[in-house]
Write a structure and sequence with these properties.
heterodimer; A: Rossmann fold; eight-stranded mixed beta sheet; six-stranded mixed beta sheet; 34% helix; B: mainly alpha; MetI-like fold; 0% strand; MetI-like (chain B); BP-dependent_transpt_permease (chain B)
């Protein structure tokens, strides 16, 4: 942390330093911040000459794609850079104190007290073996000399402030007993308990479902209004930026691209990169943008599900008998027709991925699944294997789905090898061809997965799925982990492959905007059951079920001038799909309200 | 917007062979050299050794009957009975290599087989195998080895088998843990959805990931097994005298450590160097064979 006095401290403000609307003295000033990493001999600059100022009660968004240095900046402000990284220039001033010049002991006093931080993954940021109450009181007592009982009172107040249900009970619970949204509320309570001047929120809602994200964003805004906290919001989601931020800093590979008030940025971006970034953001329409085919009843479906149930046993007691069951999927039925994209959408735990796993035989199911005219289950091993050729799956995390010890060419050719197709030369040729088809250079087939970027790896997974010329490809959150610009291009690739190969997609996603862009027909799932199903125009243009409406409303709109209609703040969590033996969830009946638009009654 | 620009790696695309990469590593070459030296010494012991290993030489003892220190006529000195220590160490290498490589290799194979099977299939197969492993772990190793060695007529090969039989448990445990973690990984699920059979998944996708760990356990096991053999020999159920092994040379002479330190020091150093050599070689092989390290060097 040696802050070499560099260039211009304060006096000659760099062009980037534009103070907030209600100027005054900024709470936090970042001036020419440069972060470098030591790398064989030299130093590589990761964040270059970044400057901004943050006023009281202001929300500043640091937006950019992965690798843009936005998280590094927040860690540098907190003085928490990993070993090997250092601030090699510039200053971070909290009012008049230069944080980069402070010794660790002084920083520790400031962290959590005057500058607090919340992270993306609330589970890993909470200590799993301490109760919520213990962690909150400890955080308070670390900074203020109050008695244990006083600290408990303040902790309880903090939990009430973040509108957590049953705060007294939560104090005695452990992190794993809470849902993701509740954990993030606890993190916010912990961060705000000491009323810091600055709150750094690093992707605070990225790991959460849309409806929960909405609750957390509303909460952050309300709390900011009450306490006048300045917030640095780090996010890749331009929708969140539009809704939350007053000003935006766009970062690209450690360089500041553009700083502007949020309305100006969205209305008239000055730089090409910003324009590209905004153009790539999927926007939620009303489903009418392109002609969506109604259910083509005449054709035979590729995949046909009826009355499909997936249940997982939970054993308990001394004899480890089945005491409870997770009813992950209940009585789900739908058809996927040749050449169409059918989407399953819903929040985590709704059973959409379980259906994908049941379709490829990774979990056992009850009910009837027909693939290309064959009933899944009860087949010989040989027939099972043959059936695999027709249905392929592309997972969410391409790094996890590729064996890191195999060359990508071998991985793409492996399905052919497994099914005994072609000679080793012809398989290699096919792999080269597929690489070319998904937009990768055929010369890269001898590389290993870790040598590619996230988007390229997902292309490899798609190439592997295509190798057997399947009739149905299941995309299980396949674009959720990708940056928006990459996501847009992978979606384009999927569309063009559909046109070329006539393949059908079963597209599974929690992202309403992506689903709206790619699907022909959509089923909305809630707690293991379908609550609404229809064409894109029907579901997005005329949503009938209250849950569908809630989902669509919760999506952040990438337009700062959008006025969100006032609604009661959402609270509460999705009920659990676990039932004790003998009990079952109530079965939802779907009613046709015209043209195959099915809506659950009640 | 950099999705299509691949990370530049300085490694040339034409992979140097494993041998070429090995030659570049000095420590690994030292290890390999020592292993080759010992192996050749063991094979050609009758040609190299100046005396027979069990021959009690008149000139091998001082006039007071004490063993001779290293140097002069006896390179490594002599032991209490006036036998040439150099010859005994050479012949002892035969025993110790067989124990260290064969017995240890066998233990690794059993352990890996049981660990992988239990870890991949789980269910009742896994439960039975792992409870059996726990049972073996709870059993005092020495007691079991003595019982087994006492039942069978002691010979070098029986001793090797006995050692393999008691030494596989730790390997099985760690392989089990690692395999069950691997089996949960998404790329295994991805392979299943491609229609890959169980054998293919086990050999092409699980075993390669276990190699680094097996190498570490294998090299650690060499010194353990060599010493276990020495213990068994000492208790009279191991390799029978006068056949030398590095372990029993140490045990025969440990009480005279103060008077004749070379009798313990030289075979001890041999065990240490052999284990170290395998370790260095194994380490290097692990790095060379791991493709995810490519481009990082």
């Amino acid at each position: 942390m040696s802050a070499q006095a560099q260039t211009t401290p304060g006096a000659v403000a760099a062009p980037g330093i534009a103070t907030g609307p209600e100027a005054g003295a900024p709470v936090l000033t970042v001036d020419g911040l440069t972060i470098s990493v030591r790398q064989d001999g030299g130093e590589a600059v990761l964040v270059d000459n970044l400057s901004f100022a943050l006023g009281r009660g202001e929300t500043l968004a640091l937006a950019g794609e992965s690798g843009s240095g936005k998280s590094l900046t927040s860690l540098a402000i907190m003085g928490l850079l990993a070993p090997g990284l250092r601030v090699s220039g510039g200053a971070v001033r909290l009012r008049d104190t230069d944080l980069t010049a402070l010794p660790e002991s002084a920083l520790r006093g400031l962290r959590g007290n005057r500058v607090a931080m919340i992270f993306q993954e609330p589970m890993t940021s909470l200590n799993p073996i301490l109760t919520i109450g213990a962690q909150l009181t400890e955080a308070i007592r670390a900074h203020e000399p109050v008695s244990k009982s006083d600290a408990r009172v303040r902790a309880l107040e903090a939990l009430k402030a973040v509108r957590l249900s049953q705060p007294e009970k939560r104090m005695t619970q452990y992190p794993h007993e809470l849902s993701g949204g509740m954990r993030q509320r606890v993190m916010i309570a912990m961060a705000l308990a000491l009323e810091p001047d600055v709150l750094i929120a690093d992707e605070p809602t990225t790991a959460l479902d849309v409806t929960v994200q909405r609750e957390v964003l509303d909460l952050l805004r309300d709390l900011q209004r009450e306490h006048g906290t300045a917030i640095i919001l780090i996010t890749h989601d331009m929708g969140v930026v539009a809704e939350m931020a007053d000003r935006v800093v766009i970062l690209k590979q450690g360089q500041m691209v553009e700083v502007a008030p949020v309305r100006d940025l969205f209305a008239a971006p000055k730089k090409q990169y910003t324009r590209d970034l905004l153009a790539a953001v999927p926007r939620l329409g009303d489903g009418s943008s392109a002609q969506a085919l109604p259910e083509p009843v005449s054709q035979t479906p590729i995949a046909s599900l009826s009355e499909v149930k997936v249940r997982f046993d939970i054993r308990g007691g001394i004899l480890s008998r089945v005491t409870h069951r997770v009813h992950a999927v209940e009585n789900v039925g739908f058809n996927v027709y040749p050449g169409e994209t059918f989407s399953l959408v819903g929040e985590s735990g709704c059973g959409k991925s379980t259906i994908a796993k049941a379709l490829v035989g990774l979990v056992p199911h009850l009910g009837r699944i027909e693939l290309n005219g064959h009933v899944l289950g009860g087949l010989s091993a040989q027939d099972q294997k043959a059936l695999r050729r027709d249905v392929q799956i592309v997972f969410q995390d391409p790094m996890a789905a590729l064996d890191p010890r195999m060359r990508v060419g071998d991985l793409v050719a492996e399905p052919l090898l497994i099914h005994g197709i072609g000679s080793s030369e012809s398989r290699r040729a096919t792999a080269r061809e597929l690489f070319d088809r998904v937009g990768l250079s055929p010369d890269w087939i001898d590389r290993y997965p870790h040598e590619f970027s996230g988007g390229q790896r997902q292309r490899i997974c798609i190439a592997r799925a295509l190798a057997l010329r399947p009739k149905l490809i299941i995309c299980d959150e396949s674009v959720s982990a990708l940056d928006v610009s990459v996501q847009a291009r992978v979606l384009d690739l999927l569309k063009s492959l559909q046109a070329d190969f006539g393949v059908s997609y079963l597209f599974i996603s929690h992202d309403m905007a992506v689903v709206e862009n790619i699907s022909d027909r959509i089923a909305v799932m809630y707690l293991g059951q379908i609550v609404e199903m229809g064409t894109r125009a029907q579901v997005f243009g005329n949503p009938q079920h209250s849950y569908t409406k809630r989902l669509i409303e919760a999506v952040p709109v990438p337009d700062p001038s959008f006025e969100r209609p006032l609604r009661p703040r959402l609270t509460g969590d999705i009920p659990s799909p676990i039932y004790s033996l003998g009990e079952q969830p109530e079965r939802l009946l779907l009613k046709n309200i015209g043209d195959g638009h099915l809506v659950a009654v009640g | 917007m950099t999705e299509l620009s691949i990370k530049t790696t300085t490694v040339s695309r034409a992979d140097p062979t494993v041998w070429a990469q090995l030659f570049r590593r000095k420590l690994a070459m030292f290890g390999l050299g020592f292993i080759v030296l010992i192996t050749l010494g063991a094979i050609f012991a009758p040609l190299i050794a100046p005396f027979a290993p069990d021959e009690q030489l008149f000139e091998g003892l001082t006039l007071q009957g004490a063993p001779m220190a290293p140097g002069g006529q006896f390179l490594f000195g002599t032991d209490l009975l006036g036998r040439d220590l150099f010859a005994r160490v050479l012949y002892g290498a035969r025993t110790s290599l067989i124990i260290g490589v064969v017995a240890n290799g066998l233990a690794l194979m059993i352990g890996t087989l049981i660990g992988v099977t239990a870890g991949y299939f789980r269910g009742w197969i896994g439960a039975v195998l792992m409870r059996f492993t726990d049972l073996m772990m709870a059993f005092p190793v020495l007691l079991l080895a003595i019982c087994l060695a006492a039942i069978f007529q002691p010979s070098l090969w029986i001793v090797a088998m006995v050692i393999a039989f008691v030494n596989w448990v730790q390997t099985a445990r760690v392989v089990y843990t690692e395999t069950s973690a691997l089996a949960e990984r998404e790329f295994i699920a991805a392979e299943k959805t491609l229609g890959a059979g169980t054998l293919r998944i086990l050999f092409r996708h699980i075993l390669p990931h276990l190699v680094p760990m097996i190498i570490v356990w294998g090299t650690l096991g060499i010194s353990t097994t060599v010493l276990l053999e020495a213990t068994l020999s000492y208790l009279g159920v191991g390799v029978q005298p006068p056949t030398p092994s590095w372990g029993n040379i140490i045990f025969e002479n440990q009480t005279y450590f103060q008077a004749a330190p070379w009798l313990v020091f030289i075979p001890g150093a041999m065990i240490l160097l052999l284990a170290l050599s395998f370790n260095l070689l194994g380490d290097a092989l692990r790095d060379i064979l791991d493709p995810t390290q490519r481009g990082m060097r």
